[in-house]
Write a structure and sequence with these properties.
- The chain contains four helices and seven strands.
- The chain has 151 residues and is of the alpha+beta class.
- The chain has a single domain, classed as Gcn5-related N-acetyltransferase (GNAT) (Aminopeptidase), CATH 3.40.630.
- It has a seven-stranded mixed sheet with strand order 1-2-3-4-5-7-6, with helices on both faces.
- Strand 3 and strand 4 form a beta hairpin.
- Helix 1 packs across helix 2.
- It is globular.
């Protein structure tokens, strides 16, 4: 089997495809401009490519010795194929390269698939952010704050 996917730095020209995925997977999507801003200010922004198409993306920020995974997403039609794990592994490797000792992220309490993936990578819950995420029809959902040691 030929591996037709790879991970590379996100380019400004990738942002329309990234935003198209974001609109499909999020109740309150980031704007295309926000992704452009992340690239322009130097956030560690990545895309997962399959057959020359963007099918996933991730964004990391850093502070001192910590990495914060701000975004990690896979196109709906490509989910449950191991691509999220591949991208998460890449993001954690990049964080280590940059000298981060811990990684942090927030995840919707209801996102059981993502929570299972993070647990596989030894993320543990360190807090709850009440009403952190926007839901449908003006509702709110709690976010779980997770962290893992990178060493």
């Amino acid at each position: 089997m030929v591996n037709r996917n790879n991970i590379r730095k996100m380019l400004l020209t990738d942002t329309p495809a990234v935003f198209a995925i974001e609109e499909q997977i999020s109740v309150a999507p980031w704007s295309e401009q926000l992704f452009k801003d992340c690239i322009n200010v130097g956030y560690d922004s990545w895309v997962l490519i399959e057959d020359k198409q963007v099918v996933g993306y991730g964004v990391l920020s850093y502070a001192v010795n910590e990495a914060h995974i701000l975004q990690l997403a896979i196109a709906p039609e490509k989910q449950r194929q191991g691509l999220g794990e591949k991208l998460l592994h890449h993001l954690l490797d990049q964080a280590k390269i940059k000298g981060a000792e811990e990684a942090f992220l927030e995840v919707r309490e209801s996102n059981l698939a993502a929570r299972a993936l993070y647990q596989k990578y030894n993320f543990v819950e360190v807090g709850i952010r009440k009403d952190y995420y926007e839901g449908l029809n003006g509702t709110r959902e709690d976010g779980l704050s997770l962290t893992c040691s990178l060493y």
